[in-house]
Design brief:
2 copies of one chain form a homodimer. By secondary structure, chain A is mostly helical. Chain A has 12 helices and 2 strands; from the N terminus they run H-H-H-E-E-H-H-H-H-H-H-H-H-H. Chain A is about 70% helix and about 5% strand.
Amino acid sequence: MPSRRASTADQIKDYILTQGLHPGDHLPTESELCERLGVSRSSVREAIQTLSTLDIVEVRHGRGTFVGRMSLDALVEALVFRGVLSPGDDLQALREVLEIRQALDLSMAERIVAALRGTANPSLHDLVDQMVASATAGETFAPQDRLFHTELLGHIDNSLVGQLVTAFWDVHTAVLPRLGLTLPADLDQTARAHRDMLEAAEAGDVDAFRTAVVDHYAPLQRMLDEARPPREDARGAGR
Amino acid sequence: MPSRRASTADQIKDYILTQGLHPGDHLPTESELCERLGVSRSSVREAIQTLSTLDIVEVRHGRGTFVGRMSLDALVEALVFRGVLSPGDDLQALREVLEIRQALDLSMAERIVAALRGTANPSLHDLVDQMVASATAGETFAPQDRLFHTELLGHIDNSLVGQLVTAFWDVHTAVLPRLGLTLPADLDQTARAHRDMLEAAEAGDVDAFRTAVVDHYAPLQRMLDEARPPREDARGAGR
């Protein structure tokens, strides 16, 4: 990255901070920024593009430039591409994403259970019913699945975990078809494991919640295991 | 993002995939890409800039454009900015990053201990000695701290976890001084907890490893707690 562009981007970030702007707030026009920062229009334009890729600013065409939501979309884009690029590594990138999803879900088990213990969650149950019905009909249920995880993690006081889990969910879902992999046949287990997670949380049972999380990933895990010989075997007996 | 640019970026990504290119491989020149993809030079230039921000390509000036390392630098940049932007949220962004670092470290406890059980790790011990010596002298030890975590996580078969932990480490370290926070006075505990983590792993003791991980974050946690009243209190008794 040319240092000029990096520095104009840093100047714009400093401007956002010193002015106390928040996501959604309007930024000055390109020519106002040129004048204020003492840099050329092309520097401002390049800096805005870099910041827009990172969702630090958002360009709404015909309406101007705004402070962005700082979502993790850039992370998703980079990881999806890395996941697709590395099939030569025997799906290793996809395994790593799966492990992190499971690790984050397990690490938040106590807090999710504490938040849901003794509550009723009709919208989550509704999503589970839809997933089970789809699985029974042999259909996939990606939108409900994604929404379930987002809503579940919305109950804990850490928005970054929810965003990361959703980001990794998106990576996973985008990479599978590009690698020519279809969703596992045993989608039934995945659908039902969502119900187990929800019921365990409402019952205040942390151990049952953890078991359901692991169950929930088992079909995906098996699919990856069957797509290539397990790494241990490959390395182990020198076969 | 204008659809034209997104689509040229997608075309370049497809080109990398269909040609089977890997990180470090040379990409065609700007004019070759224009011709091959049938788009204008400015579209190619914008797409390259977007992909370069995401580290999907790397522009080396005077040498051309290469497939990038797909690092998580973009994630770090976006999260650092979000962490700095939200001090009005009572350091919540920083707390969330800290929780995720701890969750990832704890989730990998069994695998790190399995990898290090019964081994000798002179370079890790050397880093610990340097950290303890610095803490005793009242000095900070950020480079050794970062290297310790990177090297420790290098022992497990998931490169993404190591990259994420390092990325969050960088976020943390970059955000603290910008918020006017200094490192905690009880750096001694942090330094010694690294030694406890290492010795527990070498001894094959998962529980001791987990305890040391929590100990290791305690000074940072206390610093954040003291920087504002705990959220529970603020919400609880209506004080």
